[in-house]
């Protein structure tokens, strides 16, 4: 399948972005992807599950047999579209609208997932925001605190709430980024949060090892998601992803199988690790 695309320098004037406004729309799942029951009977909760990587993970999980709850901020149409995709796979999809910066909502989302879907086996901490600034002096306290409040703090709150339900063999998967390893001069606060997520993943994996709960992460490179046109100017979007060895941005469907692997028994000997679907950037991690 040819994933070379023309991003057309498109932009969106709001964040979170909308997948329904993207042209071309991201590829969610390959037609050739065949589920094999890797997640039969499992329940997954995915933050930022309405679009982008989160949507692709939700649909892949469903094709592998899992019911899914997706958390989103306000992108109702995107969330409903994702729900329809999951249900087309014959699985349940619970929509949870709210602000993950509120600890109470994180707890409520976990409890509602357990109540409505019958349990919780896989927690995917995926939601994030980013706001480019070329000069560190232009990063306001409000932006700095807001980026951490979205990208890092909810991971603690969701895990704290989920641990009452996760059992031996269950999994936590966090979304970090290539920027955690190579840095990003224009995304100082965002890349800092992604570095924190790597450390969080490694530390939590040790903390939960005796319980048999595996904790891993995925560090995507340039992936074609709504975050891109809603973050960058037209020139940046037009060139997006051309600087990696494969010379193109990745599609969400090229990232989601990494989450399937980490959520399944195939990754039973993986914990504290990070997978790197990034188009060929060698990070020596």
From TrEMBL:
This is SDR family oxidoreductase. The keyword Membrane does not apply. CDD domains: SDR_c1. PANTHER family: NADPH-DEPENDENT ALDEHYDE REDUCTASE 1, CHLOROPLASTIC (PTHR48107:SF16), NADPH-DEPENDENT ALDEHYDE REDUCTASE-LIKE PROTEIN, CHLOROPLASTIC-RELATED (PTHR48107). Residues 1-23 are annotated as: Disordered. GO terms for molecular function: oxidoreductase activity, acting on CH-OH group of donors. Residues 1-17 have a biased composition (Polar residues). It comes from Salmonirosea aquatica. Keywords: Oxidoreductase. Pfam families: adh_short_C2 (PF13561). Belongs to the short-chain dehydrogenases/reductases (SDR) family.
